[in-house]
Amino acid sequence: MKTLQSICLITAFAITLAACGSKKDETVTEDYGTPDESGQAIASVDVITQGESLVKASDCKTCHHQTNKIIGPSHTEVAKKYDFTKENVALLAGKIINGGSGVWGEIPMSPHPDISQADAEKMAKYVLSLDGEKEH
Ligand code: HEC
User: Fold this and answer.
1) How does pLDDT run across 30-70, given as a tens digit for each residue?
2) Residue with the nearest Cα to atom 6 of ligand 1?
3) What's the CA gap between 135 and 119, in Å, rounded?
């Protein structure tokens, strides 16, 4: 009887896993939508819009204003300091996840270990776009 029960449990678990797996695939497809004629350009604007929503939904605004320094530098100031390159997207995404200090002053930026690398990169791209620069 015990064996039968555990077989049932394992089967139910496997079905649940499979269900979750396929749901995740759907979400990924939705995220990027269907590219239109200008393909790449639209996709990168989408990433910046997603980054903006992520920043607005997180605790960033406690310390960052878009245009004024509060506890941290304004995000526009950050955009002006860094070129919008792949290297700087990775650098700032790392800073968002791991926190740090010493670039803008002695006040440290708090780490965000629960933000994924992909989301942190979208946030970094949004910040870097604020001075009107495009990724290059
Ligand atoms: C507790 C306050 C605080 C919070 C919350 C916070 N930051 Fe910061 N942030 C700072 C400070 C202070 C600095 C300057 C750190 C330094 O001098 O190295 C900074 C720096 C940065 C930089 C520039 C890093 C560099 O090396 O030049 C970026 C980009 C940034 N923050 C993005 C974010 C984002 C996105 C969020 C939300 C997920 C966020 N911050 C949340 C305080 C904060």
Assistant:
1) 444 444 555 556 667 899 999 999 999 999 999 999 999 99
2) 60
3) 17
Tokens standing for residue 126? 């949004």
Name the residue among 79, 71, 116 with its Cα closest to residue 96: 116
CA of 110 to the centre of ligand 1 (A): 7
Whole-number Å distance between alpha carbons of 118 and 3: 42
Closest CA to 47 of 60, 31, 71, 27: 31
Q: Is the CB of 90 within 6 Å of ligand 1?
A: no
CA 118 → CA 22, 47, 50, 82, distances in Å?
20, 10, 11, 19
Residue located via tokens 């955009």: 79
How far is the CA of 107 from the CAs of 29, 65, 70, 73, 101, in angstroms?
40, 16, 11, 10, 6
* Amino acid letter for position 112: H
What distance, in Å, lies between the first and last C-alpha atoms of the chain? 64
Q: Residue 9: its pLDDT value, please?
A: 55
